[in-house]
Amino acid sequence: MISIPILDRLSFRDYQGLIFTVLFFAIETVIRIIVILLPKFVINGIDAFIESAFPWLTSSERKPRVSPLEKAESFEQIIRFWRKYAYEQHVVRTQDDYFLCVHRIPYKEIITSDKYNDKNNQRKNRMEKNIEIMDNLDQFIKTKAHRPPTKNGNRPVVLLYHGFLMSSEVWVCNTDEHRNLPFVLSEQGYDVWLGNSRGNKYSQNHQSLSPANTAFWNFSLNEFAMYDLPDVVDYILEQTGASSLTYIGFSQGTAQAFAGLSVNPRLCKKVNLFIAMAPATTPKGLHHPMIDAFVKATPSVVYLLFGRKTPLKLALFWQRIISPPLFVKVIDGCVNFLFGWTGRNMTAEQKLVSYQHLYSLTSVKSLVHWFQIIRTGRFQMYDEVPSRIPYHSPNVVRDHIPPKFPTKQISTPIAVFYGNSDSLVQFDVLVADLPPLAYVKAIESWEHLDFLWGKDIEHLLYPDILKLLRHFNAQTDEKNHQLEPERETDMYTE
Ligand SMILES: *[C@@H]1O[C@H](CO)[C@@H](O)[C@H](O)[C@H]1NC(C)=O
Ligand SMILES: *[C@@H]1O[C@H](CO)[C@@H](O)[C@H](O)[C@H]1NC(C)=O
What we know:
Elements lengths: L11 H26 L2 H14 L1 H4 L9 H4 L3 H8 L5 E6 L4 E8 L7 H17 L3 H13 L11 E5 L19 H7 L3 E4 L10 E2 L14 H20 L4 E6 L1 H11 L2 H6 E7 L11 H9 L3 H6 L6 H9 L2 H16 L8 H7 L9 H13 L37 E6 L7 H6 L6 E5 L6 H4 L3 H4 L1 H22 L11
Helix pairs in contact: 1-12, 9-10
The chain binds 2-acetamido-2-deoxy-beta-D-glucopyranose (2 copies).
């Protein structure tokens, strides 16, 4: 064992953990291969068997009604499901040649019943005249899709960014329309944009690299903060003609903004307000003591387990195979084991839908970066050559110390929302490193994911967000009028 450099500082307990993990993955692989080889009807049979043999595993208090949102395959399908919201897809090319897909809900269609019927009648007449109905419909959809991007018409702009191992879908999978933040914002006249980090479901393209290459996955939080964020913000401001936007991040979405804003004063000027929900900058660690000790000992050991590309790709495989109610139990079990979350403030119906849209890919390197941050307790840049000496050991001469992100330098106003039962957030550690906050709200007994899907989110969280948006966008307007009195107003017409 001494010959493997990463392993030589592990304790006996860590070895146990390592062997346990390797065994787990080996067994998982064997089962997965068997499942692949089995025909579909056998799998359905097994599913039915599990359901009847262990009813407590799958049936909640009552059988939840299945929402079509559960099976929606993409962000676009979810938007189309609600029918009222305009939708655009944009692609941002980063300085280092990744192509990021950005979703946009530019406005809510105002459908008065008259207008709606008129449109329907027109369409019906057109169809009756024409025998090739399908062709016509196709054409209709195509011309609709080829409209130029919407003029912004001075709507204030909001950018939402998802968390670790997620995509923009997490923002729109609440089962009640008005519990979805993008729709609430759209209703209030905001121009809503939703980012997707490099490597996730929507952003797996690069000018010269393929996701099959290790080099494609060579990115961590550094790249989210230094490239993804400023490049996406620049693109949005150029498209809309706005002078600044409001940024709302969840979890890692906050971390990348804390990091990105801290090193980029010009970016600070382009963001009029940064709303941080469930802000994770220095998570304490993992709930299970053995796993926690294990990753803190040597974050790079994660590379041994997952390789250098993307972790847990096979989770998507299991998601396809397992029935949704069972999948909810599995995810609840996993996050309870890893983070101690109970999920008690989300309804069973909600979990059925959201957990189907919870998980997306990212790089193993960004996972290692998080473990480095957890290990040192510092919100610091990725360390390519980490020292194996624990950070707090006394009397040690170090050859390098990775810089902390200088979050005290951020000039953008910051509002923080966090849950009192969120094991990933250390509020005291966070504020100690920030300039004075514009607004803080702690929500009693909320955990991490409640900031996306918690019960009563529309009363506990959104009114505060709307108030903040109104306040800071009014300030921005005032400033603009002082600076550029002749700014042309571009009225939006549809
Ligand atoms: C990843 O990029 C860094 C710096 O950009 C480089 O030093 C390192 O060798 C790269 N690693 C891999 C595995 O490509
Ligand atoms: C979350 O759930 C707990 C336990 O059911 C409950 O006591 C608490 O009031 C809930 N929190 C909120 C904010 O609804």
